[in-house]
Write a structure and sequence with these properties.
CATH class: Mainly Alpha
Distance between the termini: 51 Å
Strand order of the largest sheet: 1-2
CATH superfamily: Winged helix-like DNA-binding domain superfamily/Winged helix DNA-binding domain
Strand content: 5-15%
Number of domains: 1
Amino acid sequence: MQKNPFDRITIDPEVMVGKPTIRGMRITVEQILKSLAGGLTTKDLLDDYPDLVEEDIKVALLYASELVGEERVFAVNK
């Protein structure tokens, strides 16, 4: 049986004010996404955060895509 990849995402009100983090570390999904959007590469992130592994970055992207995939916009008749 395959392990749930989202087990790497942790949410704890005592860590980073409850923002989703990677494996309970003080590295948020948001930090990873903003770093990638700002032009850092996966290698840059792995160099900057030695406790991260490539799978952590992939799961952060998957987590964000799942959240966006759940968004719905409803038209309002004016």
